[in-house]
Design brief:
By secondary structure, the chain is an alpha/beta fold. The chain is 25% helix and 24% strand.
Length: 305
């Protein structure tokens, strides 16, 4: 058994907007394991899940901080993915690159950075699109496979967390946080650091879980009707170790501090789990109409000054 050790940090102010958390709504409790349909039958450690009333950020308080980051992410990628996942194809990340071209004029040789590079597939797609692509990855097994199996040059990829990595100011034209920001304990500070690495008029792309997700609301309603105070939002102490769900207003409020422009934001439905398949089509339609899909994507542009 992999025993994880944590310290716990009480959250006093919203990470994104700075609002005092004392008046934020307590949504319920989240266990350190899968809750299933009968969470009252489960044992474990739980943390409170709260929602910012100003910017709609969902977070846990206290927030669990692992003693060793490899306890969370040091798992071999073969445990996650089938062998086919180690095959890169030119269509990977292509829609994001095409969206970027709508926001910013792309020139060959521009520098790009993939934060949380995983196996390096996004780096390969950025290189294929003409970028000089760099990245870093906190999971040692993923970092090693990116070099040994995907052919990422070791001089282009670093092993480490954003809190410990550094680059020269105004180095990159494009930076991507693909399914990363929700794993960072202090996402606002990490974004501020990334903007320092970004050139004027550069773009940051973020994909993160949305705090408006309809399926989460359905499951939370079920839990309440079942007489529990559990919620399905975030998963700070078990895979995939999500610490936050973001509202669009989370990025609006942070822009007042960091001074970026939100060039575009989009919601995506993504896959639906644990709900009968005959309900998937109507639920997908509702989520498309109401912008209540699982994923929020934002494109942030640095001021050109």
């Amino acid at each position: 058994m992999n025993i994880k050790r944590y310290s716990f940090e009480e959250i006093m102010n919203c990470e994104m907007c700075g609002d005092a958390t004392g008046k934020h709504r307590i949504m319920g409790q989240r266990l350190n394991g899968s809750q299933g349909f009968r969470p009252k039958k489960k044992t474990g450690i739980s943390v409170s899940v709260k929602k910012c009333t100003k910017c709609q950020l969902i977070y846990s308080s206290p927030q669990p901080i692992p003693f060793d980051i490899q306890d969370h992410y040091g798992i071999p990628p073969e445990n996650y993915w089938t062998p086919e996942y180690f095959n890169w194809n030119p269509g990977y990340y292509l829609s994001e690159i095409n969206t970027l071209k709508r926001i910013k004029e792309i020139q060959p040789g521009m520098k790009a950075l993939d934060i949380g590079a995983g196996l390096g597939k996004c780096m390969l797609s950025l290189k294929n699109a003409g970028f000089d692509a760099y990245g870093f990855e906190p999971s040692q097994p993923f970092y090693e496979r990116a070099i040994s199996k995907m052919g990422i040059p070791s001089e282009k990829l670093q092993l480490g967390q954003i809190e410990d990595i550094d680059y020269w100011a105004s180095t990159f034209d494009f930076i991507t946080f693909g399914a990363v920001l929700e794993h960072l304990h202090h996402p606002a500070a990490c974004l501020e650091k990334a903007f320092k690495w970004l050139k004027p008029d550069g773009v940051i792309h973020i994909e993160a879980p949305s705090s408006k997700h309809l399926i989460a609301k359905i499951f939370n309603t079920y839990y309440r009707l079942a007489g529990t105070n559990y919620v399905t939002n975030i998963s700070p102490m078990h895979s995939p170790f999500h610490l936050y769900e973001f509202g669009y207003n989370s990025f609006v409020e942070l822009s007042k501090k960091l001074g970026y422009e939100i060039s575009l934001h989009q919601y995506y439905v993504c896959d639906i789990y644990h709900i009968p398949k005959f309900l998937h089509w109507p639920l997908r339609k509702v989520m498309q109409w109401t912008n209540t899909g699982l994923q929020l994507t934002v494109w942030l542009k640095k001021a050109n000054n």
